């Protein structure tokens, strides 16, 4: 690689900062990180990173930090990485957010985010740019502004979009560029300086990996948010697992199967995969998933791509998903409360309201 890759990072929380650190220390990339709520702290003190991979790092900064999206006239970016929360129900949309920094036909867009069908809005907005879909299995949290706790190894799986299973529906030349861009980025991430430290690989079947992770994320994550309950307690009070978590997992697996996505491998059975997902967290951890943390803090939750899209795919394919439907309806109610608190909506009837007016007494 004759020149360092120019990388723009959107989402400098836990996962994003660990990604930026690995790329910078690898020596093959120059990262511009967009900071929001942590901008002032990082500008003054840098990041403190307590990392299982890299050790304890103080006063670290990427090559460049900003609190605004740069314009492509200022710098041509080879890659834009999005590790921020994906909330398409909250404006502005992520594709519209990054428009100023995208150089058509050049900038590769990497989505390291949860959920399914996250790539389609980017493909529609940027039809000539390579799209790379990524799934992170890293555990990294910004416990306070500028302080990152990274307590599970940096593991990421990446693959070009459109996926190989449906390449015939896309542009062949663009698909080849996306494949090359994926390999180039993986090489930079896995540079000799990071040898045996990070685990970033090409994934030949990203949809299966996404859906496999979704088995957990579409069940434990939202149910924890609804109940305000950590994973340990959900497992102790077994009816939560038996009557809520496992049914949601089964529905997610059924929708994936209807799509032709295999999340249960040949040497596994469905219930075994579900049991593995139920027990994947240490029982003594009292872990609160991200949605639970968000609802407790009054933040927006990632409900559409984690629960809404599986539900809509199930409806389209005729797969019954009653548990996911109920979960989604409750999550939307919680989300609209946050929207109201932040002034996005008002509790007012309009001409389209179906439940305005007063009926006769039920007595």
Automatic annotation (TrEMBL):
Keywords: NADP, Oxidoreductase. GO terms for molecular function: 2-dehydropantoate 2-reductase activity. One of its GO terms (cellular component) is cytoplasm. Belongs to the ketopantoate reductase family. It comes from Aspergillus glaucus CBS 516.65. This is 2-dehydropantoate 2-reductase. Residues 7-162 form the Ketopantoate reductase N-terminal domain. Residues 207-335 form the Ketopantoate reductase C-terminal domain. Pfam families: ApbA (PF02558), ApbA_C (PF08546). The lineage of its organism: Eukaryota, Fungi, Dikarya, Ascomycota, Pezizomycotina. GO terms for biological process: pantothenate biosynthetic process. NCBIfam families: apbA_panE (TIGR00745).
């Amino acid at each position: 690689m004759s020149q360092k890759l120019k990388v723009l990072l959107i989402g400098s929380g836990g996962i994003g900062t660990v990604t930026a650190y690995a790329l910078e220390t690898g020596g093959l990339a120059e990262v511009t990180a967009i900071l929001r709520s942590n901008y002032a702290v990082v500008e003054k003190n840098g990041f403190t990173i307590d990392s299982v991979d890299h050790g304890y790092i103080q006063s670290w900064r990427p090559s460049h930090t900003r609190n605004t999206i740069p314009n492509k006239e200022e710098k041509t970016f080879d890659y834009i990485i999005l590790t921020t929360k994906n909330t398409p129900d909250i404006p502005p949309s992520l594709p519209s957010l990054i428009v100023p920094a995208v150089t058509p036909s050049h900038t590769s867009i990497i989505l390291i985010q949860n959920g399914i069908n996250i790539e389609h809005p980017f493909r529609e907005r940027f039809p000539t740019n390579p799209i790379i879909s990524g799934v992170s299995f890293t555990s990294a949290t910004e416990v306070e502004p500028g302080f990152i706790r990274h307590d599970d190894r940096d593991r990421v799986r990446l693959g070009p979009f459109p996926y190989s299973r449906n390449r015939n529906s896309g542009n062949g030349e663009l698909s080849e560029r996306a494949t090359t861009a994926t390999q180039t980025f993986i090489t930079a991430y896995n540079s000799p300086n990071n040898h045996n430290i990070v685990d970033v690989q090409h994934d030949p079947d990203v949809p299966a990996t996404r859906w496999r992770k979704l088995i957990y994320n579409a069940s434990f994550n939202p149910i924890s948010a609804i109940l305000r309950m950590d994973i340990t307690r959900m497992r102790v009070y077994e009816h939560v697992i038996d009557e809520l978590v496992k049914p949601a997992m089964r529905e997610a697996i059924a929708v994936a199967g209807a799509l032709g996505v295999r999340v249960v491998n040949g040497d596994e059975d469905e219930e075994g995969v579900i049991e593995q997902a139920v027990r994947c967290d240490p029982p003594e951890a009292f872990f609160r998933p991200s949605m639970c943390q968000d609802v407790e803090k009054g933040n927006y939750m990632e409900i559409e791509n984690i629960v809404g899209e599986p539900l809509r795919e199930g409806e389209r394919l005729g797969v019954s998903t009653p548990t996911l439907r109920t979960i989604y309806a409750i999550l939307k109610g919680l989300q609209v409360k946050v929207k109201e608190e932040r002034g996005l909506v008002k509790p007012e009837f309009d001409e389209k309201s179906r439940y305005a007016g007063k009926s006769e007494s039920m007595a």
